[in-house]
Amino acid sequence: xxxxxxFEGLRCAFDAIHRFADDxxxxxxxxxxxxxxxxxxxxxxxxxxxxxxxxxxxxxxVRDTAQRNALGEERCRFRLRLYAPxxxxxxxSVSFSVADTAPVLSTQQEASDAICEGIRxxxxxYAQYGQQVFDATLALQAEHRREMExxxxxxxxxxxxxxxxxxxxxxxxREEQRC
Length: 179
Hints:
This protein is an alpha+beta fold. 54% of the residues lie in helices and 22% in strands.
């Protein structure tokens, strides 16, 4: 699929990804093709449950997402923003463009092949969307587990405090009975 697309500035985006790989929490890819608008195409969280994405995996996601969104377009412009964890600051913003250099179809067979390719691409997009939903669900579950564990620890600490208070009250009551 790569030979079909002509990229401008993608190398700069890849260099930024490699340069800020250790500091990046997530990145967002925007479509800037319409004038004075930025449409969010996707967000990629670098931290996955149990592992951190490698720079090569991030680059592949950026390239694949840009290619999928440039299908059939003469030229598309994109902006990639790298953010620190929790989004407390933007690390880098890079623009690049992609041109779909596919030839114009001339026969019925070529049109049929293009339809099949389009259906395959649609399936890949659904798979990507499903993976994003799955990853978001895993992240929410992990956050829920962390919050539940923190609540359990706080509850145990509060129960210990209540036990100490009850012991003090009982001791004071005994002391008063002796007097």
